[in-house]
């Protein structure tokens, strides 16, 4: 496991999730023009991997596309891409250079089936005899697709390619989630989608949407196999 992947696992920073199948996405967003053809469901998505998003390009209606998970702001000029930009704290994003443009006018939805968190207060031993934190899988018993509030950006790569990237927003955990981890993704209700994507939404509107986001989720323990992104199969979702 790389140092980056290990940091995600140890800190549990909403750094792994399950993407929906193409069929589930198109059922959840039936009227959306999308670029999801051939999209394969992944059961252990990690930062920098391609993920499905819903966003509104400037002057356009919402579309579905594939983005790099890990925001690269349009103004980025360093040779090395920014690190640990796969999530942003919603409480401070509007004031941080990395996120403030997105919070103001480049908000997106990041569809997921569920996500993983590691309980830092629950130590277990892996199959290789190493101590680690117990991973949990969070999901909804009623919704096959959930939408995490995110930010998006287009960045012009040195080779001239336009790179679409994204980052999810987090908030203080509520309800049962807080017993596993102190942070959780900002998961929006369907009734909030249009308002979140709207270019007319102001700072108060955005704050109200985050405050009213969902926390009605179930969780159960899963195998420590999820600790490695090399493991990517449906068995990861099996309850221990």
Class based on secondary structure composition and strand pairing: alpha+beta
How much helicity do the residues have? 10-25%
The number of helices is 5
Residue stretches low in confidence (pLDDT < 50, at least 5 long) are 1-12
Span between termini: 23 Å
Strand order of the largest sheet: 3-4-10-9-6
Radius of gyration: 17 Å
Order of helices and strands: HEHEEEEHEEEEEEEHHE
Q: How many beta-strand elements?
A: 13
Shape: globular
Q: What percentage of the residues does DSSP assign to strands (E)?
A: 25-35%
Please tell me the overall pLDDT.
Answer: 93
Biggest sheet layout: 5 strands, mixed, barrel
How would you explain this protein's 3D organization?
It is built from 5 helices and 13 strands. Helix content is 15%, strand content 32%. 40% of the residues are buried. The strands form 2 sheets. A 5-stranded mixed barrel has the order 3-4-10-9-6. With 240 residues, it is of the alpha+beta class. The N terminus is likely disordered.
Which labels suit this protein?
240 residues, 5-stranded mixed barrel, globular
Helix and strand arrangement:
Layout lengths: L2 H9 L5 E2 L3 H7 L4 E2 L15 E6 L7 E7 L17 E3 L10 H6 L1 E6 L1 E12 L5 E9 L6 E11 L5 E11 L10 E3 L1 E2 L4 H5 L5 H9 L6 E4 L19
Parallel strand pairs: 2-4, 4-10, 5-10
Antiparallel strand pairs: 1-7, 3-4, 3-6, 6-9, 7-8, 8-13, 9-10, 9-12, 10-11
Brief characterization of the structure:
With about 240 residues, the protein is an alpha+beta fold. It is built from five helices and 13 strands. The chain is globular.
């Amino acid at each position: 496991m790389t140092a980056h992947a290990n940091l995600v696992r140890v800190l549990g920073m909403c750094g792994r999730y399950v993407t929906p199948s193409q069929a589930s996405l198109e059922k959840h967003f039936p009227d959306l023009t999308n670029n999801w053809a051939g999209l394969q469901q992944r059961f252990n998505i990690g930062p920098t991997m391609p993920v499905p998003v819903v966003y509104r390009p400037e002057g356009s209606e919402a579309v579905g596309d594939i983005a790099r998970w890990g925001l690269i702001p349009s103004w980025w000029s360093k040779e090395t891409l920014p690190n640990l930009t796969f999530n942003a704290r919603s409480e401070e994003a509007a004031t941080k250079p990395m996120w403030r443009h997105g919070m103001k006018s480049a908000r997106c939805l990041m569809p997921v089936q569920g996500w993983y968190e590691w309980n830092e207060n629950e130590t277990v031993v892996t199959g290789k005899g190493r101590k680690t934190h117990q991973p949990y899988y969070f999901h909804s018993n009623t919704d096959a697709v959930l939408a995490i509030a995110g930010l998006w950006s287009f960045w012009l790569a040195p080779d001239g390619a336009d790179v679409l990237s994204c980052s999810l927003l987090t908030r203080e955990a509520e309800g049962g989630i807080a017993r596993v981890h102190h942070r959780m993704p900002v998961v929006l209700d369907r009734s909030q989608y249009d308002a979140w994507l709207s270019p007319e939404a102001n700072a108060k509107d955005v704050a109200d949407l985050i405050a009213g986001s969902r926390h009605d989720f179930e969780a159960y323990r899963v195998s420590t196999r999820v600790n490695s992104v090399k493991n990517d199969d449906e068995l990861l979702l099996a309850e221990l």
